[in-house]
Amino acid sequence: MQIFTFIFAAFPVLALAAIGDTCTHSLGTGTCKLTTSCAGYTVSGACPNDPSNVKCCTIKSCSTSAGTGTCKNTSTACSGTYYSGACPGDSSIQCCVAGSTPPPSGNTGAAVLAAAKTQTGVPYSWGGGNCNGKSLGIEQGANTVGFDCSGLTQYAVCQATGKSVVIPRTTRGQYAVGKRIPLAQRQIGDLIYYATGGDCSCSNGYCAALYHTAIWAGNNQMFEAQKTGTTLGLHTYRTGTDICPYVIRHW
Ligand SMILES: *[C@@H]1O[C@H](CO)[C@@H](O)[C@H](O)[C@H]1NC(C)=O
Question: What is the pTM of this model?
Answer without folding.
Answer: 0.57
